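Try it yourself: sequence plus adenosine monophosphate, in.
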Amino acid sequence: MRAILLGPPGAGKGTHAVGLSEHYNIPHISTGDLFRENVGKGTPLGLEAKAYMDKGELVPDELVIRLVKDRLSKDDIKNGFLLDGFPRTTAQAEALWDFCEENGIPIDYAIDLEAPYELIEKRITGRRSCPKCGKIYNVFFQPPQVEGHCDIDGAELTQRADDNVETIKNRYRVYEEETAPLIDFYRKKGILKSFDSTKDIDEMQKEMFETLV
Ligand code: AMP
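Structure, out:
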């Protein structure tokens, strides 16, 4: 399966990406994670991206498109892939569509996760993750057994630098202006599948596995 995940920040893209990539045995490609990795290593790409990320703004299209094309040229996508956090603008969507058509790897589904702003704010401000294994928690909805520590390996949980209310508001505004129009883009292409992301994780996953075949 070749699919992309759409939806506002905090709609559950990261969480569902993990379940979907395991179920379909495909790599989960998150542009946000790729950027954070580069920021952490202090690469030129990371340094350039950081200024935008800290403000909750989008990294320029040209930079992100190059990053994704490069990633989609690796061998491990033969079985499919799941893009998370890309595309986020019409220019990115068009570039991806053309690249996939030209390379004989057309996208099967655009998976749209829908959630209202109030829920998003709680999900994002409560979000914590394990720097060691990547497991995601939420202090309101899915707290770890021991406060501040991962259930799996005990590592101290961390919060993303851009998971604060001020930045969330900006990220949501950017989503509405730049990314929401992609719902229509993929509807017209005939590959849009929408899911109600206010439902609990297990229920949604079951629905997804039944729908995305
Ligand atoms: P995410 O983890 O998907 O929420 O991404 C974190 C940040 O990385 C975003 O707020 C952007 O600054 C940047 N970013 C990730 N993906 C993209 C993209 N497709 N286009 C532009 N910026 C992106």
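One thing you can check immediately is this: The CA atoms of residues 131 and 157 lie 7 Å apart.
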